[in-house]
């Protein structure tokens, strides 16, 4: 016959196991000032980038918190092609293609039978 202690233990719900521990660096939480210093930008720029640019951050009351590892992933991920950052990253990309672009433009106008310069009335 089982003792009362054995019955009491068997009727309890099994305990949930604690999550596996992660490296301390993975869980490093930064304040707004620390995140700005880490990214080498102003605090205002960090706040501007949260949300629209997908920068991960959480507002807790009146303060911001950032997971350092999440910022690293965000930095390593290329911006969406429709974003302002993506367009700015391409600025000047065709600088070395100026001659080819001029030739291409001239060929397009020539094929259309039009002059590149508008003629007056």
Break the fold down into its secondary structure elements and pairings.
Elements lengths: L3 H8 L17 E3 H8 L3 H7 L8 E3 L2 E5 H9 L7 H7 L7 H15 L9
Antiparallel strand pairs: 1-3, 2-3
Helix pairs in contact: 2-3
Question: What do these coordinates show?
Answer:
This protein has a three-stranded antiparallel beta sheet with strand order 1-3-2. The chain has helices spanning 4-11, 32-39, 43-49, 68-76, 84-90, 98-112; strands at 29-31, 58-60, 63-67. It has a domain at 25-87: Arc Repressor Mutant, subunit A. It is built from six helices and three strands; from the N terminus they run H-E-H-H-E-E-H-H-H. The chain is mainly alpha-helical and 121 residues long. The chain is 45% helix and 9% strand. Helix 2 (32-39) crosses helix 3 (43-49). The mean pLDDT is 77.
Encode the helix/strand succession as letters: HEHHEEHHH
Secondary structure: number of strands: 3
* SS-based class: mainly alpha
Instruction: Please give the count of helices.
Output: 6
**Tell me, what's the shape?**
elongated
Radius of gyration from CA coordinates: 29 Å
- How is the main sheet built? 3 strands, antiparallel
- Quaternary structure: single chain
Indicate the CATH class of the domain at 25-87: Mainly Alpha
Under CATH, the topology of the domain at 25-87 can be stated as Arc Repressor Mutant, subunit A
Quick check: average pLDDT? 77
Query: What is the rounded distance between the termini?
Result: 111 Å
> Strands of the largest sheet, in order across it?
1-3-2
Assess the beta-strand content as a share of residues. Answer: 5-15%
**Overall helicity:** 40-55%
Which segments are poorly predicted (pLDDT under 50) over 5 or more consecutive residues?
Answer: none
**CATH architecture descriptor of the domain at 25-87:** Orthogonal Bundle
């Amino acid at each position: 016959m089982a003792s009362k202690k054995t019955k009491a233990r068997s009727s309890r719900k099994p305990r949930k196991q604690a999550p596996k521990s992660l490296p301390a660096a993975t869980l490093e939480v930064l304040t707004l000032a620390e995140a700005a210093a880490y990214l080498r930008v102003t605090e205002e720029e960090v706040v501007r980038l949260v949300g629209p640019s997908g920068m991960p951050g959480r507002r807790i009351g009146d303060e911001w918190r950032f997971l350092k590892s999440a910022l690293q992933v965000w930095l390593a991920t290329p911006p969406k092609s429709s974003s302002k950052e993506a367009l700015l990253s391409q600025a000047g990309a065709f600088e070395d293609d100026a001659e080819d672009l001029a030739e291409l433009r001239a060929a397009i106008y020539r094929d259309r039978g039009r002059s590149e310069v508008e003629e007056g009335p």
